Amino acid sequence: MASRVTSEDVARVAGVSRATVSYVLNGRSGQSISEATRERVLAAAQELGYSPSTAARTLRRGRSDLVLMLLPPEPLGRALAMVLDSASEYVEQAGLRLIAHRLPDGGAAAPLVRSLVPAALIVATPLNAEDLDSLQASGVPMASLQQDHADPLGADLGIGAMQVQYLSSAGHRRIGVALPAGPGYQWRADARLAAIQEACSRNGLLPPAVERIGLDPAAAAAAIDRWRQARIPVTGVCAFDDEYAFALLAGLSMLNLSAPSDLAVVGAEDIPLARLAIPPLTTVSVHARRIGVLFAQLATASLVPTDSSAGTTAEPAESLPPVTLVLRSSA
């Protein structure tokens, strides 16, 4: 097995000291190294296939070049996958590297952060108070759902509030909520329900009628029937996402009912199929890519030079709302 190429090998081929190799390959300023010497070092490193030791660089700097993104213990979903993708693009442009880790239920974030020594943190999942305090005390720059930011980083991103606001403005006085029956989306479902409950209260509506369903027309039909038979019938529903909205539309069809005349249905995330629903689905579009860039900007603000080209296509935080209503025919 061939031995690992070291900086000493590069120095020998380039005819310079190891210190010069270090200055050139690590981009360290304050040294008067000629352009010819710099090019000779880079050519030698390329010829030998040399790459600097990440472990050594981490030890020297006291941090790695990693931006660690902590994800919830659930399937990503389209919106969160887009947040991850755009955050990764931003940090790559900044000369850093994003890695994502799905934190299990009850998983301790602090030991993971201590082992990886990240340059910055993006926390896209709720943490317990002990973990959050520990991360904040570590001094690692962090953007978190639990920080006191405006809505772009609120746990529900403003989705539930927008669903309720639209249904309320359309005259619906009793609103239903369709949430996943399984445990896989628990934290996000809880955040959505809390947002909808708060919005109903703020708009002078009754507390929402909650049903937990699977992606199954029969289960959705049973929930619809309960809503319609209630003492104060539900006339408009906030679906957890567009897939659950599709289940509700299928349930209505099983009952020979339709949206919006028998039940108004509002989805979330605006997946590509939403416009192909029957009827086309009114939904809340999540500006996931811009939210991902915002997360990355907040986390790396102290690491990225102000004249850096990273993220130049991103809109500033104050120009976001994080969500937009897409009005179609289902509500």
TrEMBL record:
UniProt keywords, alphabetically: DNA-binding, Transcription, Transcription regulation
Superkingdom of the organism of origin: Bacteria
GO molecular function, one term: DNA-binding transcription factor activity
Any matching Pfam family: LacI
Stretches assigned to the HTH lacI-type domain: 5-61
InterPro entries per the UniProt record, alphabetical: HTH_LacI (IPR000843), LacI/GalR-like_sensor (IPR046335), Lambda_DNA-bd_dom_sf (IPR010982), Peripla_BP_I (IPR028082)
Name recorded for this polypeptide: LacI family transcriptional regulator
The organism of origin for this protein: Arthrobacter caoxuetaonis
